[in-house]
């Protein structure tokens, strides 16, 4: 038997050696950072994995220049059995130098480069490959199908490029055959390209050549083209603004190239018989977002889309799998398979959030996060989940999703769903059978050992007893040494009689330690897990086995390993049993990481929801304050100076202004506060605040300043920054209380790397959707010797109105966080109970992203100014319209009110010649202020338009930048503010009051 076993090992070694000798090493290289070679390579690898796994690729991707490519080719000739060179510039290089090993060229895209490759010595032909060259006649015919009216063409090419020469020649012949008028612009620079585009005739269609000068600057060309129709030639993705382009399937090209390699390197077919093949199926790529601009000119394309839509409906109806479309997780369409699977009617699902299909909110949120995470990484997502049907039954499903537009998830996501309930049930049944097989095997071993003991009492059956014992040992040993799961034979005193290698790997012990009696399962089990072991032994003494349970092993370095244990009793006197152990540490760690991530996401969503709520309340609150402040000012103006009620009205006016300040704090919390942006020197700002800070804190607290010199400036609102400093200093003083203490205020600057920024954001459990940029940050820190904060307090510190005092006095630290976010900064907090707190606030040095808010329509006060004419006033709140009407009439205007943006546009279309100016609210139903503004400017580009909003001026002005807005009025506004804004408009009549 031993001889046969050795012979078997020898034969196995010989087979392995033969396989190793069959390995074929092939080098792969290309020059330049482009996407095409990656896709071609994917097709090559798929073909080789299916047809020739012995071919191994050594890939040199995106080499920096042709010199590096030539160096790689030289190395491949010395060490490889063949090589693959991708891209056109590789063809030109091979044509100059030649090759000595079989070479496969992929991605040659015009006959000029193909001719360079064929210039190799025909007697030493070592080259074959695949080209995706598309004849110009086919290109022009395809573009004319999309746009039948195409008659006059301007062809843009790169002057002096070999490919351009051929491009012009072939396009000229094709255009003449089709009766098209062709004009060529051969450009040597982008300046010449843009000049040619801007000089194109109105009816000329622009067609882009394939050279780098043209294709690398498509966005600039399309922007300069204006209303001209633009077609591309060989782009994988249709440029934004180009109507369509032609391209080949790179992966298919790679598969063709892979089959060439198999034929030549494995089957021995000569490369000269293969030559160069051409992909016969080029694809026409549409930019569907551009079709609406040309719908009147391209009825053929619209009809094709209608046929495609009907075909899609037919496919969805008959598909053997579930298919649907969601927008923002709301069901837009589903096929019949999903209706049959869930039991819902179509009208019960369409328009519903996909939450209807999940029995638990946690599962619904997990599926959404995991699917969109995979889409962001790979372009598609797949996850197993559970759907709840209409009758309450649960189905296991495999859900896969792909966005309609990878660059725009809001356009919708298509998904497929497959019912895998039967498969999951079978897997569970198999798992149960496997567990009972292990238990049964152990029980079988016990019974067999008892049988052997009984047979030992009979000397006449000794021979059969020995044979049975040997067979039992072989079966037991086969299971024991399989190492698929950890197995240990144990005694009640902690002794391990035998263990396999898998068990030793779980407890991180060596076979030498076990042989030296240094392994005792009780000594490596922590107390809490020993309780579980003792309970399991009690159960095994009664039933012979125990259910699976989790325990931990304590390693020598202090770490712990989690394991799933199944125990089987072998004998009762003395007690002996088997323990089957499975390492589940990775699974436990993954579960803990998932729970941490969920907690962070929930906290972030809570803060973001409160921010949205605060911004909305502040906006509506400002509308109410506008009415209160306006009516108060109108009443004061109407009353005589000696009227008894004037003092009361002045008090109302003061309280209203205080309420407006509260609204500003709420806007600050939501990150939409109003900022007056200016360069700030943090050191000078703190020095100017010195006296104010000393007054604001306790007399028993000593303030120490550690201000760094020559700090970089940063862009921000100095008033808001002072508010942050005052808030933090006041909090520090209150944390010290009536005791003597110290507050240290220090400044500095530092370079913040990505890891530091991510750690700061994660520590606050806040989102980082607008990722903080790496770079230099200016900071100040407030350190106190107060009572400090525990973890519970720190978790709630940024909640609105949260306080450790008896009553809350405002938004507090939540407003501070809103201001910091608005400045694109962040805050770091360190605190220990009894040892004080340190809070650091960081602002990016230099200019603030997004630019500063610019004051619009600001004019000197014009207290004696009056106007005349008709003012169109649009606001959806009746009380705002009423007070605005009274103010405008008091200035001398007639007022035409509108309840929303659409009514305002309709009134202007009817009476535009009478209207002097328009006053719009930003947020209105049917048409918003922005949409109404754009519609009015299309009717009359010169109409004066003023915008009013409860949101900040910065938020509004950034959106209207460059649109010609005449002025912005911040709600709540007074009569004098409204008058000053209108007085600054030159288009309105000016004359002193009383004339």
Describe the structure.
This protein is α/β, with parallel strands linked by helices. The chain is built from 33 helices and 36 strands. The strands form nine sheets. Strands 2-1-3-4-5-11 form a six-stranded parallel β-sheet, with helices on both faces. The protein has a five-stranded antiparallel β-sheet with strand order 14-13-17-16-15. It has a five-stranded antiparallel β-sheet with strand order 19-18-22-21-20, with helices on both faces. Helix 21 (585-638) packs parallel to helix 29 (878-891). The protein is globular, with a radius of gyration of 39 Å. The relative contact order is 0.04. Residues 7-21, 806-810, 848-861 and 991-995 have low confidence and may be disordered.
Question: How would you summarize the topology of this molecule?
Answer:
Layout: H1 2-21, E1 24-31, H2 36-51, E2 55-63, H3 66-79, E3 82-86, H4 88-97, E4 103-108, H5 111-118, E5 127-131, H6 136-146, E6 152-158, H7 162-177, E7 181-187, H8 190-198, E8 204-208, H9 212-215, H10 218-225, E9 230-231, E10 244-247, H11 250-266, E11 276-278, E12 283-286, H12 299-318, E13 322-327, E14 330-334, H13 336-342, H14 346-349, H15 361-378, E15 381-388, E16 394-405, E17 408-419, H16 421-456, H17 462-480, E18 486-490, E19 496-499, H18 501-507, H19 511-515, H20 527-543, E20 549-554, E21 560-571, E22 576-583, H21 585-638, H22 646-669, E23 678-680, H23 682-688, H24 690-696, E24 701-706, E25 714-716, H25 718-736, E26 741-752, H26 754-763, E27 775-784, H27 791-796, H28 813-822, E28 826-832, E29 836-844, E30 865-866, E31 870-874, H29 878-891, E32 894-898, H30 901-911, E33 915-921, H31 929-939, E34 945-949, H32 953-960, E35 967-970, H33 975-983, E36 991-992
Parallel strand pairs: 1-2, 1-3, 3-4, 4-5, 5-11, 6-7, 6-8, 8-9, 24-26, 31-32, 31-33, 33-34, 34-35
Antiparallel strand pairs: 10-12, 13-14, 13-17, 15-16, 16-17, 18-19, 18-22, 20-21, 21-22, 23-25, 26-27, 27-29, 28-29, 30-36
């Amino acid at each position: 038997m031993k001889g046969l076993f050795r012979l078997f090992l020898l034969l196995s070694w010989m087979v392995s050696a033969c396989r190793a000798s069959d390995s074929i090493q092939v080098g792969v290289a290309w020059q330049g950072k482009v996407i095409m070679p990656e896709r071609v390579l994917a097709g090559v690898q798929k073909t080789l994995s299916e047809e020739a796994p012995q071919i191994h690729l050594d890939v040199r991707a995106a080499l920096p220049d042709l010199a590096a490519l030539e160096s790689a080719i030289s190395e491949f000739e010395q060490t490889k059995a063949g090589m693959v060179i991708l891209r056109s510039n590789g063809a030109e290089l091979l044509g100059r130098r030649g090759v000595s090993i079989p070479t496969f060229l992929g991605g040659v895209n015009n006959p000029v480069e193909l001719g360079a490759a064929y210039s190799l010595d025909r007697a030493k032909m070592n080259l074959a490959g695949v080209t995706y060259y598309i004849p110009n006649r086919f290109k022009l015919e395809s573009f004319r199908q999309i746009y039948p009216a195409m008659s006059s063409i301007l062809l843009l090419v790169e002057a002096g490029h070999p490919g351009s020469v051929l491009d012009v020649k072939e396009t000229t012949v094709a255009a003449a055959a089709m009766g098209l008028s062709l004009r060529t612009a051969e450009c040597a620079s982008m300046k010449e390209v843009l000049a040619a585009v801007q000089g194109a005739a109105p009816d000329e269609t622009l067609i882009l050549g394939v050279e780098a000068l043209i294709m690398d600057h498509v966005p600039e060309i399309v922007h300069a083209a204006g209303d001209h129709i633009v077609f591309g030639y060989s782009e994988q993705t249709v440029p934004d603004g180009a109507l369509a382009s032609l391209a080949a399937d790179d992966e298919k090209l790679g598969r063709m190239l892979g089959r060439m390699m198999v034929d030549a390197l494995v089957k021995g077919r000569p490369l000269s018989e293969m030559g160069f093949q051409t992909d016969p199926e080029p694809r026409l790529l549409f930019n569907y977002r551009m079709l609406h601009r040309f719908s009147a000119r391209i009825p053929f394309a619209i009809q094709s889309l209608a046929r495609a839509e009907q075909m899609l409906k037919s496919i969805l109806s008959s598909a053997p799998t579930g298919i649907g479309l969601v927008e923002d997780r709301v069901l837009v369409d589903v096929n019949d398979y999903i209706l049959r699977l869930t039991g819902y009617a179509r009208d019960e699902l369409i328009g519903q959030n996909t939450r209807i299909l999940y029995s638990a909110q946690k599962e619904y949120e997990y599926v959404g996060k995991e699917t969109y995470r995979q889409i962001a990484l790979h372009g598609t997502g797949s996850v197993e989940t559970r759907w709840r049907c209409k009758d309450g039954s649960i189905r296991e499903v495999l859900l896969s999703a792909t966005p309609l537009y990878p660059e725009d998830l809001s356009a919708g996501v298509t998904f497929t769903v497959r019912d895998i309930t039967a498969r999951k049930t079978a897997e569970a049944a198999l798992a149960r059978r496997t567990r009972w097989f292990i238990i049964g095997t152990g029980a079988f071993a016990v019974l067999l050992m008892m049988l052997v003991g009984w047979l030992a009492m009979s000397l006449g059956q000794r021979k059969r007893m020995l044979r049975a014992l040997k067979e039992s040992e072989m079966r037991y040993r086969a299971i024991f040494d399989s190492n698929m799961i950890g197995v240990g034979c144990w005694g009640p005193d902690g002794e391990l009689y035998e263990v396999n290698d898998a068990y030793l790997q779980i407890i991180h012990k060596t076979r030498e330690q076990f042989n030296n009696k240094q392994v005792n399962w009780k000594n490596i089990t922590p107390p809490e897990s020993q309780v579980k072991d003792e309970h399991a032994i009690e159960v095994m003494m009664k039933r012979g086995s125990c259910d699976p349970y989790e325990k931990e092993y304590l390693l020598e370095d202090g770490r712990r390993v989690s394991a799933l244990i199944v125990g089987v009793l072998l004998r009762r006197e003395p007690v002996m049993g088997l323990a089957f152990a499975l390492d589940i540490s990775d699974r436990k760690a993954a579960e803990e990481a998932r729970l941490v991530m969920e907690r962070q996401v929930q906290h972030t969503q809570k803060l973001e929801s409160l921010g949205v709520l605060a911004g909305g309340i502040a906006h509506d609150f400002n509308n109410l304050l506008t009415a209160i402040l306006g009516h108060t000012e109108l009443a004061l103006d109407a009353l005589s100076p000696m009227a008894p009620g004037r003092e009361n009205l002045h008090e109302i006016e003061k309280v209203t202004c205080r309420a407006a300040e509260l609204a500003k704090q709420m806007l600050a919390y939501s990150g939409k506060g109003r900022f007056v942006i200016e360069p700030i020197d943090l050191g000078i700002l703190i020095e100017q605040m010195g006296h104010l800070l000393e007054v604001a804190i306790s007399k028993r607290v000593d303030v120490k300043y550690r201000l760094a010199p020559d700090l970089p400036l940063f862009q921000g609102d100095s008033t808001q920054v002072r508010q942050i400093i005052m808030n933090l200093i006041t909090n520090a003083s209150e944390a010290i209380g009536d005791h003597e203490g110290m507050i240290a205020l220090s400044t500095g600057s530092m370079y913040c790397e990505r890891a530091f920024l991510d750690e700061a954001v994660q520590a606050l459990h806040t989102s980082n959707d607008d990722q903080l940029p790496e770079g230099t940050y200016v900071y100040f820190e407030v350190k106190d010797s107060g009572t400090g904060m525990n973890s519970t307090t720190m978790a709630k510190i940024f909640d609105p109105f949260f306080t450790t005092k008896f009553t809350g006095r405002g938004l507090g630290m939540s407003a501070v966080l809103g201001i910091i976010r608005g400045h694109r900064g962040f805050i770091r907090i360190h605190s220990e109970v009894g040892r004080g707190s340190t809070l650091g606030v960081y602002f990016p040095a230099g200019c603030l992203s997004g630019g500063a808010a610019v004051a619009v329509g600001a004019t000197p006060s014009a207290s004696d100014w009056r106007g005349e004419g008709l003012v169109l006033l649009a606001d959806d709140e009746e009380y705002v319209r009423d007070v605005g009407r009274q103010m405008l009439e008091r200035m001398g205007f007639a007022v035409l009110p509108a309840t929303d943006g659409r009514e305002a546009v309709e009134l202007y279309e009817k009476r535009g010649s009478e209207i002097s100016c328009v006053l719009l609210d930003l947020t209105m139903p049917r048409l918003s202020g922005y949409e109404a503004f754009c519609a009015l400017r299309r009717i009359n580009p010169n109409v004066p338009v003023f915008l009013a909003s409860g949101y900040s001026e910065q938020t509004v002005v950034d959106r209207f930048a460059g649109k010609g807005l005449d002025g912005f009025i911040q709600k709540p506004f007074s009569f004098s503010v409204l008058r000053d804004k209108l007085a600054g408009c030159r288009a309105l009549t000016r004359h002193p009051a009383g004339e």
